[in-house]
Amino acid sequence: MPSLAVIGLQWGDEGKGKIIDYLAQGFDLVARYQGGPNAGHTVQYKDLRFIFHQVPSGIINPQTLCVIGAGCVIDLATLKTELSQLKDAKVDYQGRLYIDSKAHLILPYHKAIDEAREAFRTGEKIGTTLKGIGPCYEDKYARIGIRFGDLRNEELFSSKLKKNLAQKNFLLMELYNQEPLSEKKIIDEYLGYAQEFKSYMADVSELVNTAYEQGKKILFEGAQGTLLDIDFGTYPYVTASSPHAGGICTGLGIGPKRIDEILGVAKAYTTRVGNGPFPTELFDETGRILQAEGAEFGATTGRARRCGWLDAVLLRYAVKVNNVKKIIITKLDVLDRLAELKICEAYLTKKAGVVKKISIDLLSDAEVTDLEPVYLKLQGWQKTTQGARKFSELPYEARVYLETIEKLVDCEIVAVSVGKERNDIILKNSFNW
Ligand code: IMP
């Protein structure tokens, strides 16, 4: 199996960074295919903790080549900071990081518009990460985006920037009552980046396809999660890219048959940052325990994550959309203290009674937002799971919890993460990458 995708099955923050860092030890290439610095992939390395926003999570492994595909959006200021952190930690990334010249650049006006628009919304805010993601993808689809490769030609870059900035400043001043941004400052900053980052520019599609043809092992790193997908998520409370498996092809320029296996990652419970529907959200002490034990604060924004029970209805949906057969459950140890656990197996809706699946667009619909989760109750284990390295070492109730998930979503759980460290993980024999 030369290629494997790791995809988030919830609203992001499933702990993909740790899994990718673990897996990357056995892979030649790690490729990010969508999103940008809205991602926050936490990786523990020796006594250092990295939060990668832009750089693929495999960068810590000295033999792994890391690439960022055309479907991603790049904030070069964030990239610069991340690379200098890696340098300080003596991680040698020279010659191991490439960015597709077709990836779009997040420019200062994208961030300014993201912030101004969120502040300006009178109804429910989306609760974006304010990193300029949405406005950058908008420009891409409006065919006025500026791409990484445009930095090869100073004149072309400057003329595109001037044209765009005139429009963006008009919007910022006239609609959002903000100060205009300085053209000279942006041009100077970005022409500096042009020199600094030119050696990272590549045709990533060519790189990935060639690696595949040579039989190299390739890991596709998803950012965010399926329920934040622009098409298949809880629209409009979603990100602007395609985290689901289909995004791999459009984001990297490879054919679907080059994705050999897809591994879904889900937390043992559910979290969400930002606004939008969340049927199993907890507002009580249990929710607070999950938040505290799981350190549920956004890796990118520091915002407290909303917490709730595992939602098997939504998990089944994500499993289907990605065609996943094998899943990894993360943060099982966060449930260690709880005396009773619940898993949502169905919804009680006003119109249709009890339903085991729901059309994702209806979840944001006013008519069904008052749906009630139907819970399966399970006994907690109230013992630590952190030292367990085999399924048989887990408390009986924890194994029942995992087997229940397997039955509810019709997937095999091939690994369970029980702590922050790379080795705090239980692997089944079928986890064979
Ligand atoms: P944006 O991606 O910054 O436009 O934010 C849109 C929505 O996606 C908001 O609800 C964000 O909180 C959420 N979001 C974006 N990136 C992540 C992530 O990496 N993890 C979890 N939520 C995210």
Tell me what you see in this structure.
With 433 residues, this protein is of the alpha/beta class. The protein has 3 domains: 3-100 and 201-262, Adenylosuccinate Synthetase, subunit A, domain 1 (Adenylosuccinate Synthetase, Chain A, domain 1, 3-Layer(aba) Sandwich); 104-197, Adenylosuccinate Synthetase, subunit A, domain 2 (Orthogonal Bundle); 267-427, Adenylosuccinate Synthetase, Chain A, domain 3 (Alpha-Beta Complex). Helix content is 30%, strand content 20%. The chain contains 11 helices and 20 strands. The protein has helices at 16-24, 76-88, 108-120, 133-141, 154-175, 183-197, 204-213, 246-252, 285-293, 312-322, 396-409, and strands spanning 3-8, 29-32, 41-45, 48-52, 65-68, 73-74, 97-100, 104-105, 201-202, 218-221, 261-267, 270-272, 306-308, 310-311, 326-330, 340-349, 353-355, 372-379, 412-417, 425-427. It has a 10-stranded mixed sheet with strand order 9-7-5-2-10-1-11-15-19-20, with helices on both faces. Strands 14, 16, 17 and 18 form a 4-stranded mixed sheet that branches. It has a two-stranded antiparallel ribbon with strand order 3-4. The radius of gyration is 22 Å and the shape is globular. The mean pLDDT is 94. The structure holds inosinic acid.
Chart the SSEs and their pairings:
Elements: E1 3-8, H1 16-24, E2 29-32, E3 41-45, E4 48-52, E5 65-68, E6 73-74, H2 76-88, E7 97-100, E8 104-105, H3 108-120, H4 133-141, H5 154-175, H6 183-197, E9 201-202, H7 204-213, E10 218-221, H8 246-252, E11 261-267, E12 270-272, H9 285-293, E13 306-308, E14 310-311, H10 312-322, E15 326-330, E16 340-349, E17 353-355, E18 372-379, H11 396-409, E19 412-417, E20 425-427
Parallel strand pairs: 1-10, 1-11, 2-5, 2-10, 5-7, 6-8, 7-9, 11-15, 14-16, 15-19
Antiparallel strand pairs: 3-4, 12-13, 16-17, 16-18, 19-20
The structure holds inosinic acid (IMP).
The site of inosinic acid (IMP) has 21 residues, from helix 4.
